[in-house]
UniProtKB/TrEMBL annotation, chain A:
The keyword Cytoplasm does not apply. Keywords: Cell membrane, Membrane, Transmembrane, Transmembrane helix, Transport. One of its GO terms (biological process) is transmembrane transport. The lineage of its organism: Bacteria, Bacillati, Actinomycetota, Actinomycetes, Micrococcales. The chain crosses the membrane at residues 12-30, 74-94, 106-128, 140-165, 186-207, 241-262. This is Sugar ABC transporter permease.
Length: 277, 322
């Protein structure tokens, strides 16, 4: 027993190194945000926020436009996720439950679209946006995020749909439900975990997206999203690192919240799906 | 994929619940399937296929600021390709992009394999702690990570310089990381590796747990050491998973844009200009949209080298499944 415990020592030591290396940058961001400026500018950095303050959060939130950019980010993210869910569910149903000519071709298209190198499309997208007068609009960003998360949504939802026996729907239809009712009452509740995991992925993708938001919102600065605003923190906060870290923390919070809320349901859902499949 | 935050490993194709084909017995409805996939097809054609085609078209035209404003771009054939491919700058950017990809992917794969092997050996409480830390890193938005790395590597107040100085490395006292090309490159590598390891490590760990323990047991009885066990048992069994993760990481690292642009915009003096960054610079800063489109097209062509085998594999799995 003792020999075993001894053998575990280097393993636990290595685990501690991994733990610290992973968490430290996140910890440093949050703890800087809570330190008063005098402590931030001390010659010897303080590992703990000994005099915690929320002043930096007040400063960050009070900056002109913070809530506007927050709202813009929320609008494009939620809009893209909702669109992807509805459209993706329709396509996933057609692929998983219906037989039709061109189905294989459609699946191939979805796979190709899933691996599309979007970063290489910044230039044509900018020119198309200019030509169609959609430059500087949030609706174009929403549409781009919608299409870029759609393939993953379809692939995932199709997997979940395939795990729900078609007999369940048929039984409901025999009981007099219409096809739509059968889908809504029987299949949709079973898809909840799949809908959760795809919306989690879509939300995070859209909330984080920088390249297109940076290239397509140029003149109308009121339509910027949080990542682009945050990338110009030097212009906004100067050398106020406390406020910069507070803004970064506020930017991270919704993603963490979504992760924590959905995490458990997603995991249980996938386990259940695997057992059923 | 647009995002560097990848799908959770549990929803990855590898771990997806198996797809079982069901041939519906009900009567055929010929219009419905097409109506259901119509929005997907329309969206993909308008926002993915059309931009790709447009990019190729622009790369064959003379398309600068004047054409952007007034229209009327003229066809120039392959002149733009000739101009880009004969410029020494492209080749130095290309070399840098390859270095960037190789360094990042090798570090990501080695570190995440080590972390995954470590996770298997940990007690349940420590394992939960490390896995939670990995998930936390995964959830950090790219732009939040770039700002905190800029803060940690700040010259006068940054915690990294303080740490290195207190280790006795006096040359790091007030060292300005972002003024030096190599130093900025190193910081970006650290940042991308830090952000990418969680996905790879957690996916590899999920794969490791599927290997029956008896295999390790019998290898150990036969007197194999840890390295031999990895080479003979673990790696061959997980080869498909290693292949999948490696090709995904190559794609993500190669086309990485947000981190580089937010931290250095390709500078200082072009030391962190990779292919996607170069394309954007040429188009947006120099208004040479035609040359930018050429570089983008070349980027896609280079990615196809990795993408095509990956897609073929995906599609073959699909054909077996349905």
């Amino acid at each position: 027993m003792r020999a075993r415990a001894l053998r575990q020592v280097p393993v636990n030591l290595a685990a501690t190194v991994v733990l610290v290396a992973s968490v430290f940058p996140v910890y440093w961001m949050v703890s800087t945000a809570f330190k008063p400026t005098t402590d931030i500018q001390a010659d010897t950095p303080q590992l703990l926020p000994l005099h915690p303050t929320v002043q930096h959060f007040r400063d960050a939130v009070a900056v002109d436009g913070f809530w506007l950019f927050w709202r813009n980010s929320a609008l494009v993210s939620v809009g893209a996720v909702l669109l992807a869910l509805v459209v993706g569910l329709m396509a996933a149903f057609a692929v998983a439950r219906l037989q039709w000519r061109g189905r294989q071709g459609f699946v191939l298209m979805v796979f190709v679209a899933q691996m599309a190198p979007w970063e290489a499309l910044l230039i044509p997208m900018f020119i198309i946006a200019r030509d169609t007068g959609t430059l500087d609009t949030l609706s174009l960003l929403t549409a781009i995020y919608f299409v870029s998360t759609l393939p993953f949504t379809i692939v995932t939802l199709r997997g979940f749909l395939a795990a729900v026996p078609a007999e369940l729907e048929e039984a409901a239809q025999l009981d007099g439900a219409s096809r739509l009712q059968a889908f809504r009452r029987v299949v949709l509740p079973l898809l909840a975990p799949g809908l959760m995991s795809t919306s989690l992925f879509g939300f995070i993708t859209a909330w984080n997206e920088f390249a297109f938001a940076n290239a397509l919102i140029i003149k109308n600065q009121d339509n910027r999203t949080l990542p682009v605003w945050l990338s110009s923190f030097g212009n906004v906060f100067g050398t106020d690192w406390g406020a910069t870290m507070a803004a970064s923390t506020l930017f991270m919070l919704p993603v963490l919240a979504v992760f924590l809320v959905l995490q458990r349901r997603v995991t249980t859902g996938i386990v259940a799906g695997a057992v059923k499949g | 994929m647009l995002s560097d935050a990848p799908a959770r490993p549990t929803t990855d194709p590898v771990a997806r619940p198996p797809v079982i084909s069901r041939r519906p017995t009900r009567r055929r409805i010929p219009v419905w399937p097409y109506l259901l996939v119509l929005p997907t097809v329309v969206g993909t054609v308008l926002l993915l296929l059309y931009p790709v085609v447009r990019s190729v078209v622009i790369s064959l035209q003379h398309f600068r600021l004047a054409e952007l404003v007034r229209g009327g771009a003229t066809w120039v054939g392959l002149d733009n390709y000739r101009e880009v491919l004969t410029s020494p700058e492209l080749w130095s950017v290309l070399r840098r992009t390859l270095l960037w990809t190789v360094v990042n992917v090798v570090l990501i794969m080695v570190l995440s394999t080590l972390v995954a092997l470590l996770l298997v050996r940990l007690g349940s409480r420590m394992r939960l702690a490390v896995m939670s830390a990995l998930v936390l890193v995964w959830a950090v938005p790219v732009l939040a990570a770039t700002t905190v790395f800029q803060w940690m590597f700040q010259s006068r107040l940054g915690v990294v310089n303080w740490f290195l100085t207190s280790l006795g490395l006096e040359q790091f006292d007030g060292y300005t990381w972002f003024a030096d090309g190599t130093a900025t490159f190193v910081i970006l590598v650290v940042l991308v590796v830090w952000q990418s390891v969680p996905f790879a490590a957690l996916t590899l760990y999920a794969g490791l747990t599927t290997i029956p323990g008896e295999l390790f047991e019998s290898a150990r009885i036969d007197g194999a050491n840890a390295l031999q066990i990895f080479r003979v048992v673990t790696f061959p069994l997980l080869r498909p998973l290693f292949g999948l993760i490696t090709s995904l990481e190559i794609i993500w690292v190669f086309k990485c844009f947000a981190q580089i642009w937010a931290v250095s915009q390709g500078g200082p003096e072009g030391a962190t200009t990779t292919l996607p960054v170069y394309a954007f610079q040429v188009a947006q800063s120099l208004h040479k949209y035609d040359l930018g489109a050429v570089i983008s097209t070349l980027t896609v062509l280079l990615l196809l080298v990795v993408l095509v085998p990956h897609l073929r594999h995906l599609y073959r799995t699909e054909a077996v499944a349905s």
